[in-house]
Design goal:
With about 325 residues, this protein is of the alpha+beta class. It contains 7 helices and 12 strands.
Length: about 325
C-alpha cells in the first residue's frame, strides 16, 4: 500500500551509478528495438511487390554497410564494457578506512559481527557516510547477501571468503534478502540494514541492548589462539615448529617448494582448514587440520587477532 515504484530506493554511493548504467542499457536496447521494428515495417511497404512481373534487381553486398553494422555495435558494446568494468572495480575495492563486519550465512539466517564484538542476527546496523566492508562465508550452502537499496549482491560461499562493501548515503531501514536459493526456508532468510547517523551508530555500537559484555574478535581470537593450541607451535622462538605469526598479515610469504603468497584472510583460513596446501618455506607440513574443531566464526576471530599483531613484534621470527 506504500508508494509504488519500479526501482528500489537509492541509498548507497554506488546505487546511482549502477542505475545510470542500467538505464543506458535499456535506452540503447529500446532505441535499436524501435529502429529495427520501424525499418522492417518501412521496408515491407516501400519494397513490396507491385506486380506479378516485377523482378527485383540482384544485390551484391556493400562493404561500407557491413563495416558500419559491425563497427557501430562493437563501439557501443565497448562503452558497456568499460562503464560496467569501472563500476565493478569500485564495487570490489573497499576503501582502506572501511568499517569491518564479519558475515556468516547459514540455513537460514545471517550472523553478523562488528569489530567491537557486537553480534547481530538478520540485522545490520551501519553508520551513514562511512564505507562498510563485509567479509563473508557460509557454514553450509551458498547464500547471497542482497541489499536492493544499495545495489549490493554478493554470494556467501562455503569453504571460502567473499567480500563486498557499500556506503550508505541516508539513514533508514533497508531490506536484506538472501538471493540464492538455499533450501526450504530460503524465502524466510530476510533481514534489514539499519543505516544510522554517525552519533546514533556509535551509541548503538556501545549500547547496552543485546550482549552486554561483548568480547571483541581480537580478544576472542587471542583466547582461541591459546585454547586451540596454535600458540604451542606458532611461537616467536628459533626452535618453534611453526612460523611466528606476528606481523604476518598482509605480508608476502615464501612457500616450501617455491612460490610466494600474500598472507590475506583467504590464505589464513586455508592454512587453518587445509594446512598442507601451502606450507611456509623452512617448515614441515606437520600441522593438523582444524576442520570440524573450529567454526567459520572462530576462524574469523583468529584472523582478527592475527591482524592485530604488530609487525615490530616479529623480531623473534625464524628469519635467516
Ligand atoms: Cu540463504 Cu537463500
Amino acid at each position: 500500500m506504500t508508494r509504488f515504484s519500479l526501482f528500489p530506493e537509492q541509498a548507497s554511493t554506488i546505487a546511482a551509478r549502477t542505475d545510470a548504467l542500467l538505464f543506458f542499457l535499456l535506452a540503447v536496447s529500446a532505441f535499436f528495438v524501435l529502429l529495427i521494428a520501424g525499418l522492417i515495417l518501412y521496408f515491407m511497404i516501400r519494397y513490396r511487390r507491385r506486380s506479378d512481373a516485377e523482378i527485383p534487381p540482384a544485390i551484391h553486398g556493400s562493404l561500407a554497410l557491413e563495416g558500419a553494422w559491425t563497427v557501430i555495435p562493437f563501439l557501443i558494446s565497448l562503452v558497456f564494457f568499460f562503464w560496467g568494468a569501472s563500476i565493478f572495480a569500485s564495487l570490489t575495492r573497499p576503501p582502506d578506512d572501511a568499517l569491518q563486519v564479519n558475515v556468516v550465512g547459514k540455513q537460514w539466517m545471517w550472523k553478523l559481527q562488528h569489530m567491537n564484538g557486537r553480534r547481530e542476527i538478520n540485522e545490520l546496523h551501519i553508520p551513514v557516510g562511512r564505507p562498510v566492508r563485509l567479509t563473508m562465508t557460509s557454514e553450509d550452502v551458498i547464500h547471497s547477501f542482497f541489499v536492493p537499496a544499495f545495489r549490493t549482491k554478493q554470494d556467501a560461499v562455503p569453504g571460502r571468503y567473499t567480500w563486498t562493501w557499500f556506503q550508505a548515503t541516508k539513514p533508514g531501514t533497508y531490506h536484506l534478502f538472501c538471493a540464492e536459493y538455499c533450501g526450504t526456508l530460503h524465502s524466510g532468510m530476510i533481514g534489514s540494514i539499519v543505516a544510522m547517523e554517525q552519533a546514533a551508530f556509535q551509541a548503538w555500537l556501545a549500547g547496552s541492548t543485546g550482549e552486554l559484555s561483548a568480547v571483541t574478535p581480537v580478544i576472542a581470537g587471542e583466547r582461541l589462539f591459546e585454547s586451540a593450541g596454535c600458540s604451542s607451535c606458532h611461537r616467536a622462538a628459533p626452535d618453534a615448529r611453526g612460523p611466528s605469526l606476528a606481523g604476518l598479515f598482509g605480508r608476502t610469504v615464501k612457500l616450501r617448494g617455491g612460490g610466494t603468497i600474500v598472507a590475506d584472510e583467504a590464505y589464513v583460513r586455508e592454512s587453518i582448514f587445509a594446512p598442507a596446501a601451502k606450507v611456509v618455506d623452512g617448515f614441515e607440513p606437520i600441522m593438523p587440520t582444524f576442520k570440524g574443531l573450529l567454526s567459520e566464526e572462530d576462524v574469523m576471530q583468529l584472523i582478527a587477532y592475527l591482524k592485530s599483531l604488530d609487525t615490530r613484534a616479529d623480531a623473534g621470527g625464524r628469519g635467516q
